[in-house]
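hiii, so i know i said id send this last week but things got crazy w the move. better late than never?? heres the sequnce for the chain we talked about at the cafe, plus the structure i predicted for it. fair warning i was half asleep when i ran it
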Amino acid sequence: MGRRRYGDRRRLKESYSGFQTSEYEYEYEYESITMRYILFTKLFREQSIEQLIETAKRAGVDGLDLCVRNGYPVNPGNARVELPKAAKRLREAGLIIPMISAATDLTDPSSDISETLFRACHDAGIRDIKIGYWPFKGPDYWKQVAAARKQIEAFAVLGSKYGVRTCLHTHSGSNLGVNASALMHLLRGMNPSHVAAYLDPGHLALNGEPLPMAFDMTAQYLALVAIKDANWEIQPGKPRRSKFVPLGEGLVDWSEMLRILHASKFQGPLSFHSEYDDFPAPQIFEQTKRDVQYMRKLEAALIR
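okay and structure toks below
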């Protein structure tokens, strides 16, 4: 992105003019020549908000993708109070919180939890919420897609009430929206101000399209990108299984992804998932820090 230089001061305005209500506008100010990097807090569930602030700063990210799930400091039971407080504290610390990640089974827009989380996001000034997944139950794929689309449309209505955008994440395995093509079965024809695509190149490397195709077909809807690398682990006589690995050690061509995103003027956020389940906690942090440094180095080389 040659139009930007070190030290540029830019104001990013998160506007909801596409929603039925126009009163919800939030502004985040940041200094960067790169996209915004945020840390997904899934594997940091024991940390308080203050500890997460320290972890984010030490890891070199710009903010958090906050897990709002049972067992976390901010959860559906306390989100109405604690999410706005957490967002305020993060911003006071110079960090951003552009999104939260709800539970992976949050697919009912009429549930009390959905109402609670969307309202809490509005009160906290958070634009995006990642909802859950619809597992493929077979047979009759298209009937299941039609049913899921009805629920997504209802999420869009809920989001328009609060100025919050519903984001669907590509996840390998037997899920509707398993890759960009399948995700567009769910999103196509909907208002991208209300519902959006959350592409995950790691999962796409396992069950998806080439990155240029995936990003092109979702361009109108793209809001978020997940950062994790993946490989197939193959052992003689056993079914292959997927494994998440440090950035640069898996199947994803990160330089290609960055070229695509910069060419489209995408500014992020990029959410670093750090899903190193078999690592001890200190090693998860150290690997996350290396992943962030790896991505910043690739991005810096791209924009020289």
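btw Residues 1-32 have pLDDT under 50 and may be disordered. thought thatd interest u
miss u guys!!
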